[in-house]
Amino acid sequence: MALVQSVPGRLFKASLEEAHGRASQITAKERHVGAKVRELARVEYLAEAIYAKTESVVTGTVNFAELPDFQRELAFAITNIDELRRALHSIGWAGEKINELGFEYRRKMRGKSNLLEITALRKQFESRAESIIEKVSRDAAIINNAEKALRRMPSLRKMKTVLISGYPNVGKSSILNALSDSKVDVQPYPFTTKSLLVGYMSHGYRRVQIVDTPGILDREARNPIEKQALAAIRHLSDKVMFVIDPSETCGYTLADQEKLLEKVKREFSSDVLVVYNKADLWAHDAGKKAASSGRGLSLSSNDPEAMAALKERLLAWFDDRAKP
Ligand SMILES: Nc1nc2c(ncn2[C@@H]2O[C@H](COP(=O)(O)OP(=O)(O)OP(=O)(O)O)[C@@H](O)[C@H]2O)c(=O)[nH]1
Ligand SMILES: [Mg+2]
Fold first, then answer.
1. Ligand 1: which residue has its CA nearest to atom 6?
2. Which domains are present in the chain?
3. Which end of the chain is more exposed for a tag (fewer CB within 10 A), N or C?
4. CA-nearest residue, atom 14 of ligand 1
5. 174 Cβ below 6 A of ligand 1
6. To test ligand 1's pocket by mutation, which of 167, 174, 179, 278 has the most ligand atoms within 8 angstroms of CB?
7. Helical spans, DSSP H, in 25-80
């Protein structure tokens, strides 16, 4: 679903060509009458074409206040919604103004019988319409930029959701893939080159959305936009599955990963399930076993039995008052 409709390019020129094309198809027995009718039609069709195009931009834009929290927050982070609203207002105004002028000019033209005067009025109307469209060209650009930015917005469902967090390469995506019923959906994520990976898992009536958020929870928000993006993520869920790789083959020390875990708990969510992944690589290490024991689940993402148990655990998380 598009949140914003873009303003068609060459709004004036294309509408003008359309109007002249339609009007030229009008024929009348008497030459002089035919010419006048065509001039009137040019005005009518131009006003109509522009009005229809601007109207569909205005009505085709969603009411941002009615979006789900997550999407609304994100939309506000990505675009200046107030500026967009003003631009939409201007575009709507332009269409209505041209429509009104069309009526006014046709009334004037009907009262004339001199074809030169009629044609002069039609041309005057066209140039006034063109200058109105020029006046709102900045607004059109604002709308089209917003459309482009918002087109990249992920569309996540409003349902029970678990977020996956942890350093790169710890196995987040592997776990998500192993848990998901079907193919994982890749959703664009604005202002990062990364994407959100979204999976769904179900058992009976229970259904949970899992979102892998690479590079979002695992580092400092750098600017206001990222802060707002974090706020948006918070709307999605406060349940985080934090993945740690004690084998350190991910390239980060266990100590650094624990530090990030504390940070996520402190700043983002206290409802955290810790998963110690890649057990196949470190289970023989007594020290690492001791470090992880009792603090979370130890497993390997390539072990189907362990993944089934994790899935059950995550589904149960949303049952009444259940704790991970
Ligand atoms: N031995 C072993 N390797 C694993 C396991 N889980 C994941 N890996 C490997 O670890 C590497 C990283 O896995 P990913 O699932 O891509 O990790 P990620 O956390 O999604 O990484 P980013 O998307 O970069 O943040 C891959 O080569 C996986 O095959 C595991 O349980 N055991
Ligand atoms: Mg990944």
1. 171
2. 11-151 (1.20.120.1190), 161-317 (3.40.50.300)
3. N
4. 171
5. yes
6. 174
7. 31-59, 69-78
Contact (Cβ atoms closer than 8 angstroms) between residue 33 and residue 175? no
Chain centroid to CA 201? 24
Q: Are 6 and 139 in contact, with CB atoms under 8 Å apart?
A: no
Ligand 1 touching residue 302 (CB < 6 A):
yes
User: Hey, what are 192's tokens?
Assistant: 């990062």
3-state DSSP assignment of residue 87: helix
Amino acid at 109: M
Element (H, E) at 115: helix 115-135
pTM here is 0.79
* Helical segments of 217-324, H only: 224-236, 254-267, 279-282, 286-292, 304-317
Instruction: Kindly state if the Cβ of 171 falls inside 6 Å of ligand 1.
Output: yes
CA of 266 to the centre of ligand 2 (A): 23
Rounded Cα distance, 47 and 126, in Å: 9
Q: If you measure from the C-alpha of residue 302 to the centroid of ligand 2, how many angstroms do you get, rounded to a whole number?
A: 15
What pLDDT digit, counting tens, does each position of 101-155 carry? Answer: 999 999 999 999 999 999 999 999 999 999 999 999 999 999 999 999 898 888 7
H or E segment at 23?
Answer: helix 11-24
Ligand 1 site, residue 173, Cβ cutoff 6 A: yes
What is the C-alpha separation between 317 and 209, in angstroms, rounded? Answer: 12
